[in-house]
User: Fold this.
Amino acid sequence: MKILLYDVDSVLPNIALMKISTFHKNMGNDVELIRGESKSINIDYKKYDKGYASIIFTKNKKLIESFPWKSGGTGIDIDKKLPNNIEHLMPDYSLYPDNEYSIGFTTRGCVRDCSFALSQRKKDY
Assistant:
C-alpha cells in the first residue's frame, strides 16, 4: 500500500506524521512525505492508497479543501488526538533527514500566544 503524508505548513518535523509513518512502515507499507511549506501544491492523489495531512495554522485549511483522506493538527482541531496504538510509537525521523535532533514533546504548545495562532485551551502542561 502507498501512503501519502502531507505536511502542509510545518517548519519543524511533524511528530504526528512521523508516528503515522512508523505505523504504516511496520505494516510493510510504502510511505512518502510531501512538504507544502504553506503553499498550494498539486498532488496526484491517484498515486496513493491512503493519506494523512497535518496543518498547524488555521489560515492554511484552504490548502487541503480537496484532500480526500484524514487530516488533523492544531489548524484543524486542537483536541483531535492520534489513536493510542499510533501515539505511543517511536517517531520515524527518516522522514526529515536534515533534522539532527530528537524533538519529543518540546514543540507541543507555544508560550508566545501570537494573534495568528490557535490559543491553547489548556495551559497546564
Observations:
- The beta strands are 2-7, 30-35, 50-54, 70-72.
- The radius of gyration is 14 Å.
